[in-house]
């Protein structure tokens, strides 16, 4: 018999996913559709997350999920535990249920992970459990560059070839940074990014998570087997780019005169529990890996 009261199994209960998302959709409107987008391209939430759920009359009232995130931190490969989708129904709050579930989650995680991470707009909920805020940064590069070709196309996940392409590159990707980067992770990436525009340059064999805003390029992540210089990416974009805002440490992009700014991504902070060797470095956990 399991030592855990709240640890559940999606494979052991076919109705569990519906019960969980009934709770999560109240707390995080739209999350169900993001998870469905990921599921359709072969990266399901249920295969990646270990759910810890407290029930009341067969209704899920509190949930804390645990993901495994393969990362590269300060040049070292390790598997980090990601705490995500933390939710309690409004009418059951302030009764100690969240604390009970979180304490069990941490007991479980301490057996498997030296490091835990999460991102949140409410850090006060996690400070009592040994999590601490780690400062993050964005990076800005002035460039004034107009490419000579239009090599990027938007991926279309109704085309199985583009799904296959995404899976191949996620499985073989290089970390976008040796300070903090992610490798061989699919479900979290797909929940965060599959509903957004993703662009592919065939000659670079590179998927870019990026957005343009007039002459400013926002670069959130790169999925490729070898990170190339930023100028190679810009050369394949026909519009004028005067500034690039990079949401990860750009040391592999061969850029100069980088301005660094402390930044809270979408008003969230990164929190860490346990060992984290990149603490004090200038970096940001990419959008695709935030949980």
From TrEMBL:
<dbReference type="InterPro" id="IPR016181">
    <property type="entry name" value="Acyl_CoA_acyltransferase"/>
</dbReference>
<dbReference type="Pfam" id="PF13527">
    <property type="entry name" value="Acetyltransf_9"/>
</dbReference>
<feature type="domain" description="N-acetyltransferase">
    <location>
        <begin position="4"/>
        <end position="156"/>
    </location>
</feature>
<protein>
    <submittedName>
        <fullName>GNAT family N-acetyltransferase</fullName>
    </submittedName>
</protein>
<dbReference type="InterPro" id="IPR000182">
    <property type="entry name" value="GNAT_dom"/>
</dbReference>
């Amino acid at each position: 018999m399991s030592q855990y009261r709240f640890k559940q199994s999606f494979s052991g209960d076919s109705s569990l996913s519906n019960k969980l998302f009934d709770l999560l959709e109240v707390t995080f409107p739209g999350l169900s559709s993001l998870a469905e987008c990921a599921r359709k391209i072969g990266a399901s939430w249920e295969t990646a997350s270990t759910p810890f759920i407290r029930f009341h009359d067969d209704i899920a009232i509190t949930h804390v999920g645990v993901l495994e995130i393969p990362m590269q931190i300060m040049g070292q490969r390790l598997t980090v535990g990601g705490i995500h989708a933390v939710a309690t129904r409004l009418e059951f709050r302030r009764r100690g249920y969240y604390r009970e579930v979180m304490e069990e989650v941490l007991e479980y995680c301490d057996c498997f992970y030296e490091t835990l991470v999460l991102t949140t707009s409410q850090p006060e909920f996690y400070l009592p459990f040994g999590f601490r805020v780690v400062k993050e940064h964005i990076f800005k590069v002035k460039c004034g560059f107009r490419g000579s070709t239009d090599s990027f196309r938007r991926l279309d996940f109704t085309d199985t070839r583009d799904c296959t392409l995404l899976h191949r590159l996620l499985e073989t990707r290089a970390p976008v940074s040796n300070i903090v980067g992610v490798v061989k992770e699919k479900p979290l990436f797909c929940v965060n990014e599959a509903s957004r525009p993703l662009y592919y340059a065939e000659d670079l064999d590179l998927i870019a998570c990026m957005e343009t805003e007039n002459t400013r390029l926002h670069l959130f992540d790169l999925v490729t087997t070898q990170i190339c210089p930023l100028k190679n990416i810009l050369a394949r974009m026909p519009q004028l780019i005067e500034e690039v805002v990079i949401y990860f440490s750009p040391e592999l992009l061969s850029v100069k005169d980088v301005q660094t700014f402390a930044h809270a991504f979408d008003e969230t902070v990164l929190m860490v529990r346990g060992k984290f060797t990149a603490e004090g470095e200038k970096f940001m956990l990419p959008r695709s890996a935030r949980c």
